[in-house]
Amino acid sequence: MRERGADHQLRVDWPACQARGVCFELLPELIELDDWGYPVVGGPVTPELLTAARAAVHGCPRMALRLLPG
Amino acid sequence: MTAVLGPLGVRVERGPAVLAAADDGPSLAAHRATHGELPGVALTPLLADLERVGLRGRGGAGFPFGRKLETAAKGRGRPTVVVNLSEGEPASAKDATLAMVAPHLVLDGALAAARVLGAREVHVVVPEADLQVRAAVEQALGERPRDRVRHVVHRADESFVAGQVNAVLELMAGRPNRPVTAWEPAAVSGHRGRPTLVSNGETYAQLGLLVLRGVRDHLSRGTTDEPGTTLLTLHDDGGKRVVEVAFGTPWKALLDPASLDRPVLIGGYHGTWAEAGRLRELTVSRSGLAEADLTLGAGVVLVPDGCPLWFARSVTTYLAAQSAGRCGPCRNGLPAVAEAFTRVVDGVGGLAELERLCGLVERRGACAHPDGTARMVRSALARFPEEVQRHTRGGCSEGGRPRA
Q1: Range B308-392 classified under CATH 3.30.70.20
Q2: Tens-digit pLDDT profile for residues B163-173
Q3: With contact defined as beta carbons under 8 Å apart, do B166 and B198 qualify?
Q4: Distance between CA B10 and CA B83 in Å, rounded?
Q5: N or C: which end of chain A has fewer CB within 10 A?
Q6: Which of B164, B170, B181, B184 should we substitute to test contact with A (largest number of A Cβ atoms within 10 Å)?
Q7: Which pTM value belongs to this model?
Q8: In chain A, positions 15-44, which contact chain B (CB-CB < 8 Å)?
Q9: Is B336 in Cβ contact with A15 (below 8 Å)?
Q10: Quick one: CATH architecture of B7-219?
């Protein structure tokens, strides 16, 4: 696991995303929803949000969210 | 300047390099008579030559072609070469022109790339709807002798985003010709997960000429900083024409005085706007245009008749309809942007809402279609603040609709 260095980034697979909103439920610190219910990612994933970010990635019913090393 | 037989409705003028032999016709015999046989090439010297001439792709970012080639060469698995002639931008006709007047220059460039990469296949993507281009490519491929490198032709949909690199890879994989998310660049992992060199027709034509004629010939044109030539599709009072010009050519040598005094959209529907008169001081140069916050992109230059905001709004409506509909922010956002823009142009909507919606589509799609659309809208708002104000008060300097 590479935990040091730059923060991780959340990336959305936009064609896969169907605005279910689970990521917003699990990671409201970093994710807002736009006018149509699609996620707006607020910024890089800081170490303290990493666990919640992983939960959001695993919780997405469309598997449309990925956590990439920064 | 001599007129050449190009795509229907497009005037093609003979140029200094890739369009230099355009008068001789598109046959392989004429091509070989001018340029001779394709010499053998090796990767390392070719990369050095590409570095010296600074050949770049014709997307918005103008990515260095040599770096793409090097990435594909160093990747895992046997690379594939793709010549993308799909030209989804309806205002562009440069690749259609090349397919019709200099197809063997394009194919020689692709073959040279395939040979240095050890690729066995060159995929040629043609526009399904353009029968002239399809026929020209079929004719040219039929003339070429058998080679270890095989050609495969694909037909791209008639849509703005069909030519986007990941949409092209989808087409080649037998899936719908629409963009998908790429987690790695095509040069790293593209067709069948192998390194895939995808570029437009013009870039392969420039590569072909470089290999056939040598680096010194290429460096003899253009400027020290930007050697070589580029193709432009100009739309002004003279109609639609494709010209090849050396980098460093002043715009005032290309457009008539009346066009220079009008707002100009550079780079196509995803491009940026230049104010009236702005191009008088500028040259055809990537760095020079970048300093003026302009990008050459695929080289489309539009001089609309009438109000630039009206034209920009029409383009936005078209682009919204061209969303492939796969990504939520694009599918929902672009029509909202177009609607908000219409309200601004009609003097019944807020600018802030339009700008907010532009922000909601940027960097939120599998391809750059939403980004390019937002860029063109933002540029129109930034370059024509007085016109925007006039519209806010229900006016228009041109009296509303564009002149017929």
Answers
A1: no
A2: 999 999 999 99
A3: no
A4: 22
A5: N
A6: B181
A7: 0.95
A8: 15-19, 34-38, 40
A9: no
A10: 3-Layer(aba) Sandwich (3.40)
